[in-house]
TrEMBL record:
MF terms in GO: aromatic-L-amino-acid decarboxylase activity; pyridoxal phosphate binding; transaminase activity
InterPro entries, per database record: GrpII_AminoAcid_Decarb, PyrdxlP-dep_de-COase, PyrdxlP-dep_Trfase, PyrdxlP-dep_Trfase_major, PyrdxlP-dep_Trfase_small
Alphabetic keyword roster: Aminotransferase, Lyase, Pyridoxal phosphate, Transferase
Single GO biological process annotation from the record: carboxylic acid metabolic process
Residues bearing PTM N6-(pyridoxal phosphate)lysine: K232
Cofactor entry: pyridoxal 5'-phosphate
Family statement: Belongs to the group II decarboxylase family. Sphingosine-1-phosphate lyase subfamily.
Organism this protein belongs to: Nocardioides seonyuensis
Protein name listed in UniProt: Aspartate aminotransferase family protein
Amino acid sequence: MTDRSDPLTRLRALQAGDLPVHGGRTLAYVFDSGLPEVDRLAREAVAAYAASNALDPTAFPSLLTMENDLVGFACNLVDAPEGAVGTVTSGGTESVLLAVQAARDSRPDIDRPSMVLPATAHAAFHKAAHYFGVRSVVVPVGPDFRADAAAMEQALDETTVLAVASAPSYAHGVVDPVGEIAAAAHARGIRCHVDACIGGWVLPYAARLGRAIPPWSFAVEGVTSISLDTHKYAYAPKGTSILLHRTAELRRPQFFASADWPGYTMLNSTMQSTRSGGPVAGTWAVVQHLGDEGYLRLAREVFEAVDAVVATVAAQPGISLVVAPDSTLVALETDDTCDPFTVTDEMLARGWYVQPQLSFAGRGPSIHLSVSAATLAHAEELRTTLGEAVAAARAAGPVRVDPEVVAFIDALDPAALSGDDFDGLLAASGLVGTSEDGALALPARMAEVNAMLDVASPAMREALLIAFLDRLQRPVRPHAPGREA
């Protein structure tokens, strides 16, 4: 029987297998200020409000006060005009979903609404399209990986309810030409959303530090909404983002109300009803603690770290920048002496997590780094580690996928595969194995798995990874009382 007398001890044991969230060496998924007092403050605030419910602001007015404070701080960051409004959401994806939903519902006269977005727009927009029946019109980007504003303008038509730009794009870390995109949308009475989930809390400080940042905020005429994540470069606990609208009228279609049942009248500003007050309180406490000067200091540190990464890459044979970064995201590519997937494995083996990105639209795979302020203290270690990882990858040579396997994958129809087919493919790809005790066993190194996924079409990648997630998320059922262990 499992000893359940001390769940916290078991939690710590389980957490030992996770990526570290502190130390500045996990360069995806988490954002580390490097300040222990910030983490302590956030934990205490989250715990204090863990049982509070942001569903009803009249029942928990303290949460309403905190949310309005956060929105006000964000408005000042992004040049919001008087009359701008905002909503605290659970994360960047929910902010994007709500921006798309509000745009759709603002035009009930359009039967098949569409949105125009660059190919580099975050996948959350495709999720919104899937959920809300908004057709995605995807426009290829230019050679600099920025949105092609002229091509986007040509794609706007009478069904378009939203045009999208990124500040910056996730995959490459560059800011789209927001001014041109917003102007084209504004001229046709179309909303323009800027996805600044990454950059919203750091680009304003970058500009104050004298870095050249293309215009992207509400200072650009025609920008109607902006999303910015507080759980990224506001260094707040996971689970908060902010969606801003230029006016209350623009936000109104985002709200949902229903009195057509015998219970309380449901009234929601987000996709959720019940919302824990914990993340809101944790975020508010961190923002209050750091304030404007604290964020300026952290921005200076994170951009020093970015500059150190860029200098390290420039001096390292076998690897280079995909494009010069505008913000805190850095994309790297390798030459033909090695491959990005082996480099990421070698980095992980040395205690650094960097994220592999698969080939797309004729461009090869790359390596993604989300740099944090805490990374600066380890810049020299990163330089050494990257050099060692690239050297090891070059010694091993690029990962190759058997041509027969490539042909087999190319011939498959992901829509027609059965569960047994998926199980076989998952096992063959190395994504799923079985340990001696029957538990799911994940591969220690992912280079060969990623190389196989890289030769697959996007549709096949999606199908395989959905099957993989399905196999991962299976219940562990405790033994019923009276049954033998």
